[in-house]
Amino acid sequence: MKERFQLEDSYAYLIYRTVRALRRQFVRLAAEVGYELYPEQWFVLVRIYNNPGCSQIELAKDFEDRPSMTRALRSMKEKGWLSISDDPEDRRKHRIELTEAGLKLFELMVKAVSKERNRMFETLDEKDFKHFRRIMDTIFTNAME
Fold first, then answer.
1. pLDDT at residue 66 above 90?
2. Continuous H helices in 6-80
3. 59 touches 94 (CB < 8 A)
4. pLDDT tens figures, 88-105
């Protein structure tokens, strides 16, 4: 007799399902504070906030998709959230920084994300997150080999 493969027992499916739910939740949260913002754009905003003046190349390393990064940055610039300028030391590079509007968005979203994170994680403790992080890092490393 063939063994049945249950989708609900697949870790990849569980991760995919959770990522989709988190994505929907994030888009809803952003809309509640008055923005059309996607998780990928949020990740970029956080990276720029923590690394002002970083280059597009540095950002693209995290996201592995240069064309998508270019489109995302263009869209975010058009919305007034960031500025892109030539690097004075290397004209082939561009430096990216948050504008005042980008900083305002960042600050609003940090508050909203923190509040929502506290709600979703209230039954979990630090030990849970250490295990989760170790497991996710291991899966990521093994998948990249």
1. no
2. 11-32, 39-50, 56-63, 66-78
3. no
4. 888 778 899 999 999 999
